[in-house]
Structure to design on (436 residues):
């Protein structure tokens, strides 16, 4: 996994012809992305307690939350896919996350579910728009 | 017997025939619903669903080829979803046209200056699995992607087969006249049920070892560890991965398990291994095969 991360990082750095946003993750951009990630994590964790049951998920979904990154129908579909087993996340629809959201949005949703370590995996086919997206795609959200 | 085979074939392929997709529209949302529809189709009657045919039907019925002619008018988000959905389709079909459609969408994303390096990686891997090496090399060079095994340093005659030798997959040519082919998959519990059943019968095991090729489809889902484990568990298997699906025209469907018997210059087949077994049908075709020798 570490090698793969390195490869993705190198790929992101050397390939300059194919993307407009954050054309290269230069050291300054890396630092900025890390800082943004820390801010985002702090904001999300201070606004929401960890969701560890379907009941809590439904409550969170009734108010503004990272789940609003989904379109309404897909939001309901994602919520229906989330399964818990004795306060542990058991399953969720990874395809839906990856198809609908950016890595940053995926990270926030997974943070809510205490599953941020899956960010990189769920982002492999996600739409990338910002340097933070590239950072999460490259390094994941659990560092 | 032919009528019997026809009935079985109709039962097995019913899932494909009964489905219609994108009846209410040919847009991204309709495509998504069609893919959800396929995703929701479960295995039944002891045979894994032939998802390749189902996804090919989605591609055709949702008129994706036509959608590709209008990419310029599609917004970035929808464009990405189209790539995502084409990736799902081509994962199962490995069809050249479906993979070319992925590339077409990727090119449009590139033209717009969108970040696509990770998507290029996915397309590169798909090219390799489909054995489209010139395209694979081109995209690897363009995006500086790490090289993956290509198995392409061997020219072969006949059909290509990937076989294990000293813990490695080796591409070999195959021009044998196979008498029986069993399309199987290590991750398919119906295939495993059949193998466990056969393994308990020394005489049958011996016959299969001599006469049957256990053929795995050229798919990413056949990860090497599970193939190796299958070979180790059943050392009597003649096991190989098909190099290219289209080199096996006698294989009408790659749903697993499917049993193909070469009897009097005709291929006869049935699919599935439900818990109560298809033993009677298997032995009947095996008898015919022996008689035809």
């Amino acid at each position: 996994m570490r090698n793969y991360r390195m490869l993705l990082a190198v790929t992101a750095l050397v390939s300059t012809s194919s993307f407009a946003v954050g054309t290269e993750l230069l050291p300054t951009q890396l630092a900025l992305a890390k800082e943004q990630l820390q801010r985002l994590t702090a904001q999300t964790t201070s606004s929401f307690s960890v969701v560890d049951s379907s009941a809590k998920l439904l409550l969170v979904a009734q108010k503004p939350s990272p789940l609003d990154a989904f379109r309404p129908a897909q939001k309901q579909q994602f919520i229906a896919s989330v399964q818990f087993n004795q306060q542990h996340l058991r399953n969720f629809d990874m395809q839906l996350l990856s198809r609908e959201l950016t890595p940053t949005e995926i990270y926030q949703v997974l943070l809510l579910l205490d599953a941020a370590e899956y960010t990189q995996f769920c982002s492999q086919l996600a739409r990338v728009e910002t340097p933070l997206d590239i950072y999460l795609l490259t390094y994941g959200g659990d560092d | 017997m032919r009528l019997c085979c026809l009935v079985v074939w109709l039962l097995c392929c019913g899932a494909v025939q009964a489905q219609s997709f994108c009846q209410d529209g040919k847009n991204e949302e309709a495509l998504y619903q069609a893919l959800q529809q396929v995703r929701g189709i479960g295995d039944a009657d002891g045979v894994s669903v032939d998802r390749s045919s189902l996804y090919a039907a989605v591609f055709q019925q949702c008129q994706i080829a036509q959608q590709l002619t209008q990419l310029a008018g599609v917004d970035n988000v929808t464009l990405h979803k189209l790539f995502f959905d084409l990736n799902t389709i081509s994962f199962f079909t490995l069809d050249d046209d479906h993979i070319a459609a992925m590339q077409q969408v990727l090119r449009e994303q590139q033209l717009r200056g969108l970040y696509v390096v990770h998507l290029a990686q996915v397309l590169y891997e798909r090219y390799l699995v489909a054995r489209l090496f010139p395209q694979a090399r081109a995209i690897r060079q363009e995006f500086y992607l790490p090289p993956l095994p290509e198995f392409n340093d061997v020219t072969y005659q006949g059909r290509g087969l990937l076989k294990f030798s000293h813990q490695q997959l080796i591409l070999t040519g195959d021009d044998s006249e196979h008498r029986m082919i069993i399309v199987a998959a290590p991750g398919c519990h119906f295939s495993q049920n059949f193998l466990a059943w056969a393994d308990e019968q020394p005489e049958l095991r011996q016959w299969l070892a001599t006469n049957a090729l256990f053929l795995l489809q050229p798919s990413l889902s056949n990860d090497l560890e599970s193939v190796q484990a299958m070979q180790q568990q059943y050392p009597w298997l003649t096991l190989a991965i098909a190099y290219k699906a289209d080199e096996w025209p006698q294989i009408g469907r790659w749903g697993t398990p499917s049993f193909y018997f070469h009897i009097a210059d005709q291929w006869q087949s049935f699919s599935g291994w439900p818990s109560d077994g298809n033993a009677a049908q298997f032995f009947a075709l095996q008898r015919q095969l022996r008689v035809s020798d």
Observations:
- Helices of chain A lie at 2-14, 27-47, 54-61, 72-81, 94-100, 103-112, 119-122, 131-139.
- Chain A has a mean pLDDT of 83.
- Chain A has one domain: 2-13+28-139.
- The longest strand of chain A covers residues 88-91.
